[in-house]
Amino acid sequence: MKQVTLSVKGLKKKIGKREIIKGLDFELNEGEVFGFLGPNGAGKTTTIRMLVGLIKPSSGSIHICGYDVRKEFTKAMQHMGCIVENPELYPFLSGWDNLLHFARMLPKVDESRMNEVTELVGLEVRIHDKVKTYSLGMRQRLGIAQAMLNRPKLLILDEPTNGLDPAGIREMRQFIRKLAEDEGMSVLVSSHLLGEIQLLCDRVAIIKNGEIIKTDTVESLLSTQERIIWRVEPLKKGVEILSGYTDITVEQNFIITAYDEVETPEWNAALNQAGVKVHEMNRNLPGLEELFLQVTGSGGARIE
Amino acid sequence: MNNLIQNEMMKLLAKKRLVIIGIIVGILVMMFTYAQYKQVKEQQEKLGTSDWRAALQQQIIDTQNRLSSNRMLDEWREQLEVSLKQQQYYLDHDINPSEPGAATFTRMFLENAIDLFIPLLIMIVASDLVSSENSQGTIKLLLTRPVERWKILMSKYVTLLLSVSLIVAMTALLSYLLSGLVFGYQGWGAPVITGFDLKGANVDVSQVRLVAQWKFLLMDLGLVWLVAVVVGTLSFMLSVLVRSTPAGMGIMLAALISGAILNNMVSSWESAKYFFMVNLKLTTYISGTAPPIEGMTLLSSVITLLVWWGLALIVSFAAFTKKDVY
Fold first, then answer.
1. Mean pLDDT, 10 residues at a time, over chain B (326 residues)?
2. What is d(CA B208, CA A81) in angstroms, rounded to the nearest whole number?
3. B102: which residues sit within 8 A by CB, 6+ positions away?
4. Whether residue A210 is found in the same domain as residue A239
């Protein structure tokens, strides 16, 4: 049985009369990368800030490794590392002094651990330079280094690839996977970049207007959305026949149906018997992007 | 806790704020020293004689003559005797009263700096202790460590107290060292008149006495420190409440300047004495100048300041530990 590192129950936040987070429930297991996906303004950042204790929830509970964030704040924080939005560090201090600053705030972090994390993120050469001379990518690494100082069981990264170039994004992705797989950390990643989440995460929660619309593994989320795109001639007759078997959508010259291992060949046979020419049958696994747009309702499925 | 204070000091030193304050004080002290020097020179030219001893001797004889007069009121007699002692001291110790040395300069500098200059220096440090973390966004890192919020704020407050003490000491030391180059480093033992008790229009001189300058200077320093701590704590509170450093500084500056203006015109608005900014000139009570509002005493001013200090501290901690950080 894998240990639960983060458990969120009935989390709500009201600002004034407006409820911006409307009751979230989810759990993170050891060694899992969990994606938090939603359009801008969905409540991702507010939720993350509640998880790390920056914002007080109106109701609900958050437990990190069994410790309540509100009641046992210091114990809960000892098991967590985080970067909220950009890694904002002190620009007028060197990277090393920044690490030292945060190490002093943690129990039992000594110089050898500081060296370890510096090595882990590959900043050895520049660690004694002032942070204001760092590139964004280097700041991001230093941010991760400071989040790793206390050997956290749970790492919370808010938009970790924000502002990185493609190489940096790839590197960050590999790094996060390594942390989860080799060190057994749970990582919570928020992003509005769908491709990013699709490649990085084991499970995804899609959040919109302060509610979780779906939580599932990336694979099963995608497979429920597998579709067949038909190009048939004549279209009208094809529509007639196919709609007798299943739900269809027509878009331009294409007919879209769900994919079904057993039934799809039969539909095809039926079309053939009726003299409809089947030019194309495209099995299509939609990207998370389409799924996302479908479930968040900000657009219909489109044909690629 | 020590670690946290170490952190705050590290940040403060890296920002080089104290160096800037040192430079500001240094430049101002040099300016005032030069102005004072010019004044002394001019006075000497007016008197036409460099032999100030003769003039002082004449003053003493005049005073003695007045004292021997029978029609003298008793209280006036006492005051005259005190100033006679002061003049005699100058003569005995070969001190020119118009060119009294670095200790006197330091005392006068502190007395004039207490209500505006020192508070401004303190603001440089205090007003961005918390708000700079907000504007840099580092507050998010600071508050997600396994450390309670009140401890973080307390470490910042202790840092403030340390730097306030450092700034006051630095101001006194710099003004002594720099002005001494011109006026000489003497004057510690010179007598200073204190003990005036102003009751309405009447001056109660029954308590008037001479105090050695070093004692007087220590009292001044204590009062300056108290004012600096109160002003520092108020800016600290604004730094917690107002997210932007310039806004916090502006509010504090407006309060201080309005205090300076009010001091000149509130004598009929009595409840103005509960404003902290009207109560900053604590040193006037021991040097014997009339307070801006009748009925204000050293004790009432100190209590007023302490009340403001306490409230500011309570508000700071309450706001910092409760507020949501976005």
1. 89 89 93 87 71 79 81 70 75 70 86 88 89 88 90 94 94 91 81 66 64 86 93 94 89 90 76 85 76 78 94 94 85
2. 66
3. B175, B176, B177, B179, B180, B183, B184, B185, B186, B187
4. no
Our CA-based measurement puts residue A77 at a distance from the nearest CA of chain B, in whole angstroms, of: 5
Distance CA A195, CA A178 (A): 19
Same domain, A76 and A146: yes
- What crossing angle do the helices spanning A111-120 and A95-103 adopt, rounded to 10°? 130
Nearest to B144 among A75, A82, A89 (CB): A82
Rounded-to-integer distance, Cα B280 and Cα B275, Å: 10
Tell me which of B128, B141, B155, B325 to substitute to probe the interface with A (most A C-beta atoms closer than 10 Å).
B141
Residues A250, A149, single domain; the answer is: no
Asked if B56 is an interface residue toward chain A (Cβ–Cβ < 8 A), one would say: no
Residue A220 lies in a domain: no
B143 closest CB neighbour out of A54, A91, A101: A54
- Find all residues with CB under 8 Å of B71, minimum gap 6, and list them: none
- For residue A279, the 8-state DSSP code is E
Task: Please give the Cα distance from A69 to A61 (Å, whole number).
Answer: 8
Question: What size, in residues, is chain A?
Answer: 304
Q: A302 pLDDT band (50/70/90 cuts)?
A: very low
**How many domains, chain A?**
2
> Is residue A128 located within the same domain as residue A267?
no
Question: Which residues face A276 on adjacent strands?
Answer: none
The answer on A135 and A31 residing in a single domain is yes
Task: Give the pLDDT of residue A191.
Answer: 81
CA-based nearest residue in chain A for residue B2? A104
Chain A residues touching chain B at CB-CB below 8 Å = 49, 52-56, 73-78, 80, 82, 84-86, 88-93, 97, 100-102, 104-107, 146, 150
CA gap A229, A231 in Å, rounded: 7
Residue A304 forms part of a structural domain: no
Full domain range(s) for residue A98 = 4-215
Residue of A nearest to B151 (CA): A105
ipTM of this predicted structure: 0.78
Q: For residue B114, what are its two tokens?
A: 């207490």
Q: Are residues A58 and A147 in the same domain?
A: yes
Is residue B202 classed as helix, strand or coil in its secondary structure? strand
Give me the pLDDT at residue B108, please.
Answer: 85
Question: pTM, whole model, 2 decimals?
Answer: 0.83
Q: What is the pLDDT of residues B154-184, one digit of tens each?
A: 999 999 999 999 999 999 999 999 988 888 8
Residues of A in contact with B154 (CB under 8 A): none
Classify residue A297: in a domain, yes or no: no
Indicate the residue of A55, A82, A88 with minimum beta-carbon distance to B136.
A88
Cα–Cα distance between B211 and B248 in angstroms, integer? 41
3-state SS class at A198: helix
